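Tutorial sheet, problem 5. The two components below are modelled jointly, 594 residues in total.
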Amino acid sequence: MNKKIVRYYEKGIKYVLALTAGTSILILFLIFFFLFREGAGVFAHVNILDFVFGKDWSPVSEPPVFGALPLIAGSMVVTFGAGMIAIPTGIGIAVFLAEMAPHSVREIAKAIIELLAGVPSVVYGFIGLTILAPLIKDIFNLPSALSAFTASVVLAVMALPTVVSISEDALNAVPQDFREASLALGATKWETTLRVVLPSARSGLIAASMLGLGRAIGETMAVLMVAGNATLIPHSIFDPVRTITADIAAEMGETVQGGLHYQALFGLGMVLFVITFFINLITDLVFAKTSSIKRGASL
Amino acid sequence: MAKKLSRIGMALLAVLLVAGLVIGCGGNAATEGEEQNQQGGSEELSGMLQVNGSTTVAPVGQAWAEKFNEKHPNVDVVVSGTGSGDGIAALINGTTDIAMASRKMKDKERDRIDGTPKEIVVGRDGLAVVVHPDNPVDSLSMAEIKDIFTGQITNWQEVGGEDAEIIVYTRDTSSGTYGFFKEFVLDDQDYLKSGRATASNAAIANSVAGEETAIGYCGLAFLDDKIKGISVSKDGGEPVEPTLEKAKAGEYPIVRDLNMYTIGEPEGLAKEFLDYGFSSEGQAIIEAVGYLPVK
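Model answer (structure tokens):
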């Protein structure tokens, strides 16, 4: 009798856990489904190529024109800029923490950097707008500081905790034997780090970079506040840009449910979805590939 | 011990939940009762009124709501400044009772409303074209303003200023100020592509205050000593400085209606609220906020 209860109990737990796992997948598919259902209508009015490669985004003109290229370019430039700053800095910090810093420093520094991840994005935007933007304006002697560059700097700070903590984990996962063998062969500490540790942790470092980029491309509020929001294909990093996320946030409120503009914004959501999907796919492929190499290396 | 504590906690939680339920139901019953009273002409009002829309009109709605609430403490007037387009969309989607708009409702929006929208002009507002105080340009003609905002004029030199590129600030497409300016000043032509969109009057004022070569537009109520309002001339006339007095006298050319919309004639709380707005006290508030009263 008692055994039976235990068995049901076990089964019950199994089903509850399966249900929660299934729910998260279901939610993802529902998001996917509604995104495409709401957005597909725009492609009945605008050719999909014109939508993605059109250079004019004028949703409230008569007739409205939906060409998302300035927004896609805006997202790309800002994300790329953030990556250029956050990835080298983040990996540099991770190398310091994992390879050089004494234990006490490492623990404190890690805690502080992870705290950065907990600051709400609107606070970053606010600091970017009121403190960073005037500073950048003065340093580079620009007429206006609200630009792709300012947005990149703010996003880089926001992506930094992701890059640092995952890179640091990857560096720590490199077996101590590798370092000891390298040092025993007469390599200096720097040579060991550069030639042995970093290449061994490559997959983790790439994953860290990709997740950092993913964090940057999806960010909305901070970018909306500091990027300048001109629907223009930028020619320089100091031009104002509008990102896909910022455009959706700024225009969604005024659209009427089911209207063309509404559908176009969902179309933008689809574009963003595809971009982040590919970023994640690349990360996964890199992970899968190198984990098999690692298995081979350890044999 | 811990078990005992958690049991006490659960009991407390249960009591709270039940209490919440009872209070919640009681509240509803009271609301229904009051609504009946209202129709019966009693002076004691209660319930909730949603007012949503233009960031330009929102300070008026907010000030009315505060005073209205003092008179009728059981009424919750919720005012949100989101943008004219947002407010009208909320009216169409049925999530607000009154929409505030600093532009006229478009035909396309009228078609989507289930019923006939009622337009109520609650006040009027002058729109100032603003630049940095250090900018030597003091006045512009309507045609010059149009050329700057459509991208025909790109350098301050062309309008008597220094040799510097003009940085144009506009508003989000959901803004009524954006819509009015486009229709009234730009003759419905499109804004230049490099115009930087900002979310509010205050954001434009803030940006222009920090950038020597910037130009933007905002309500007269947002003018302060950190930004300079440009004098505007129309049809070759004398330039008129953007002040409340000149706007009231009908001399300053860029003036628009501030509207509130309801579906059908306003009823119940919405009617009481708007009646208060048109009382001498309500209209005095409009003036205090920095707009022109209509009565």
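Marking note: Residues 1-5, 17-42 of chain B have pLDDT under 50 and may be disordered. Full credit if you identified this.
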